[in-house]
Each structure stands twice: as C-alpha cells, then as structure tokens.
Amino acid sequence: MSADLTVGIAQWLRRIGGAVTGAASKLGFASRFLLAVLWHTPSAFRRLHLTLREIYFAGVLSLVIILMSGLFVGMVLSLQGYETLKRYGADEQLGILVALSLVRELGPVMSGLLFASRAGSAMTAEIGLMKTTEQLAAMEMMAVDPLARVVAPRFWGGVISMPLLAALFSACGIFGGYLVGVRLIGIDAGVFWGQMKAGVDVWPDITNGIIKSIVFGIAVSLIAVFEGYDAKPTAEGVSSATTRTVVMSSLMILALDFVMTVFMFRGANAV
Amino acid sequence: MSLPAKPPSSRGADATVACRVDPAAAAVELTDVSFAYDLRPILTGITMTIPRGKIVAIMGASGSGKTTILRLIGGQLRPKSGEVRVGGLSVPELDPEALYALRRKFGMLFQFGALFTDMSVFENIAFPMREHTELPEELIRDLVLMKLQAVGLRGAAHLMPAELSGGMARRVALARAIALDPMLVMYDEPFAGLDPISLGVVGQLIRRLNDALAITSVLVTHDVYESLKIVDFLYFVSEGRIVASGTPDEVRASGDPFVRQFIDGAPDGPVAFHYPAPAYREELFADVG
Lengths: 271, 289
Prior knowledge:
The structure holds 2 protein chains of 2 kinds.
Chain A: H1 2-39, H2 41-46, H3 48-58, H4 63-87, H5 94-132, H6 135-141, H7 146-185, H8 189-199, H9 202-230, H10 235-270
Helix pairs in contact in A: 3-7, 4-5, 4-7, 5-7, 5-8, 5-9, 5-10, 7-9, 9-10
Chain B: H1 13-18, E1 28-37, E2 40-50, E3 55-59, H2 66-73, E4 81-86, E5 89-90, H3 96-103, E6 106-109, H4 121-132, H5 137-150, H6 166-177, E7 184-188, H7 196-213, E8 216-221, H8 224-230, E9 233-238, E10 241-246, H9 248-253, H10 257-264, H11 280-284
Parallel strand pairs in B: 3-8, 3-9, 6-7, 7-8
Antiparallel strand pairs in B: 1-2, 1-4, 4-5, 9-10
Helix pairs in contact in B: 4-5, 4-6, 6-7, 7-8
C-alpha cells in the first residue's frame, strides 16, 4: 500500500516536474525566438514590400471588423454613459466619458482582442501550415532563413498595424458616441465636442493609449508568429496553435493592460 | 523546432568563397553515421558513398530513417557520431555561413513539392534566383522559362500551386530545385501519390536532368520499380541500418530476404507484418479488469 502511494507520489512529482521544465524550455525558446526576430529586423525593412504586404493583410483587411466594432462600442458606451451621468446631472460630460474610455482603455484593448482573433490567428495558421507543408524547410534548404523571409515581416507588419487600428477604433467609437449622444439623445454638439476637447490630454490620455496599443501589438504579433513557428506540423497541431494564439494573446492583453494602467494613470489620479 | 542557423550577412561571392567544395571528392560520403532523437535511435552505423554524376536511391519502409539521411546531408540535423561529408566538406563542422553557402549548391524536392502557396509557378522558380543573385528581371524571366520548358510546364507559369495536379506540382518543384544549377539534388519521395503517367514523367525527368546538367542525385523512395529504371545504385535501409546495396541489376538478381520482400511486396518477412505485441491467444483470453 505504502509502495503504491510512493509510486503515485513519484509519478505526480514527475508530471509536475515535466510540466515545469517543459514550460521553462518553451519560455527559453520563445526568448531566443524574439531575439532572433529582432536580429532580423533590418532584413524585414530592407525587403519593405514583404512588410507592407503584411501590414495590408494584418491591418487593412482587419479594418472592417475594427471600424464596425468601434462604431457599435462607441454607440453603446454613449447610451449607457448617458443613463448613468443623467442621474448625477452630469449628462453634458458625455463627450469626455466616451473619449477617455475609448482612448485610454477600450480602443487599445478591444482592437487588441479583435486583432488577435482576426490577424493573429491568421498569422499563426499561415506559418503553421507553411511548416506542415514543408515550405519553411524548403526555404532553409534554399539557404533562405525563414525567420528573415517569413517571420520578421509578419511580426513587424502586426506591430505597425496595431496602433493604427487602435486609433481608428477610437475614432470610430467617438463618432458612434456622437451619433447616439448628439443625434439621438439630443445633447448639444458644441458641449459634446467642447467637453471632450477640454478633458482629454495628449500625454496622459492619447499617448498612453498609443503606448498600450504598441505593447499589445508586440505581444500579439510575437505570440502569433511564435505559435505558428512552434506548431506541431499536423492539422491538429496547427489548430491547437491557432487556439493558443487567441487565448494567450487575449489574456496577455488584459494582464498587460492592468499593469500598464497602474503605472500610467495612478500618478495622474494622485495629483 | 529549432531556430535556423544564422545565414550569411552578404549574398553571392563572400559566401561562395566560404564554402570550398573539393571537385575530386565524392559528392556525398557518410561514414559510420548514427543519429537519435533523444534516446530513440533512428540511424546506426550508416556508411555510404554517392559518387558525382550518379543517381543513388535510398530505399526502405516508411519510418526506416531515409529522410533523416537527407536531413543530415543538408545540415538540418547533426549526427550523434560519424562523418557526413558533401564535396569533401564535413557538414556538421561547417559554421552557419558556410552551411548556407553550401546549401546554395543544393536543390531539394520535397515529398509534396513544398511550393510556396502564395506565389505563382513563375514566382516559385524565380524565388531562389531573386534571393541569391542580383540578376536583372529580364534574365530571371528567361531562366525561369527555360527551367519550366525543361519540365514541360512553360505554359503553366502563371498558375498558382493550388491549380496544379500532384504530378505538375512535383515537376514545378523539380524546376525550382534546379533553378540555381546545383551540384547535388535531393529528392524526398518524389513518386509518392502520383498516377502512373506522372510517375513515369517525373522519373524520366530526374534521369534526364541529372545527365544533362551533370548533377548528382540522391533519391529517397520506396517505389522499387520506378527507381530500378532510373538509378545507378541503391541502398536499402531498415530500422536505421543499411541492410543491402547494389546496382539495379544486382538488386533484381538478389536473394537477400529483405530485398526480395521489398521487391515482391510481401507482407511478411524480415519486415514483420505485426507490430510487436503479447501472444494473441494470451491477450484474447486475458482476464480484463
């Protein structure tokens, strides 16, 4: 009985040890992968057409979902915000509420989540399928480094697209807020825009939002290209890698958002 | 998957200088090569010589370690022990720059072509030229059309890989493999999944191109009949070891049980039909639970 227990505990410890060393090994590989991608950055910009192509695929082709989502999020925000602000007689502050919510938080976070599920998953699937169909191995055998030719342009395409998409999301959201707040509810347009102009600062609000979206762009693009490159070369492997990209990117965005918000806005509130 | 070796910083002359192939040496030489994934042995004591200008087939059942030999020759894997030499150069000892320079002298045809699916047939063949040379666009166009003409697909230059049949894709991949006039072309299962006509076409192309371009070809396959028609020498690999070798005539006349089983397609023999398992009766009547 005690021998069985010992064997059971040993197996359990072995499983935990295996999981920990596996995770540490993957983290180490991901770090080396990031360094290798950064090393190949000059080659990604030397072959600018490749990076521009990826900006098109990751950015331009995500525009519809980003713009539509931004519009509806802004409209809902305006409706809900108005209902709450009205209770305190502060309904004229709707412009600030909509703009700050979008520029500081919802713009970068929502566009990051949408970017991860639209472009990030596509990047992982594409690289994973290239690996499965031996296209990456073929490149290596042709003395062409797949990190320089395939991975680095996709990574930088994503990093460049993300802040632009976040800015467009926020802009569309503000327009949606305007449609509902001014056109539908009837708040004075001058008050709506005037309050927004007075309440939104470039540095603490807009710049921090841009910084967030750049960080999200780096995180999502890195996870997407890494998972594709590290995918098991089978249909199931690519499918799991794509799922991991969306799940990990989403969690990473939310976690990073919290950490950055603490650092960025705690000081401003303390003043 | 590991990260690829860092490629040369400059293309062309510098890298070519870094890789000095001995013209007198055999195209490929493997001496007592062993390889294992972790603790699982894949190859044990492989010794083979592939002379220049010849077509040599490496045959064996699926999972016998044939493709691993190609990966060792191409420097994608490093042997656990033994020597892998290409043109006299020890492949595992090459630094990344020299390895990439050596690979420019290789062509490789993968099992299902491995064509880049986002590029047309023309762009696939132009790819190695664009990556490794500074040739003007007109010259690249002419070279690509010549390569396509050699495999009979000049009229398919504008097609995308998804529009090609299996046989056509294999021929395009062959044209891409010879795009830079390599010294060595490696074929990984070039006949897999082809209809008889395509199979004959690809087989003849391999022979004709090998002779016309004076290259050396290494063919990994389990298609006995097609291989016997076109190759100069064969090695049989089973469970990571070379179990037989010879010219096509020697192989046809061979009485070696493994060679006979392979040629005759017998289900049982040195390569057992049944995966190792406990005795059938014992397992059927075992007390379950």
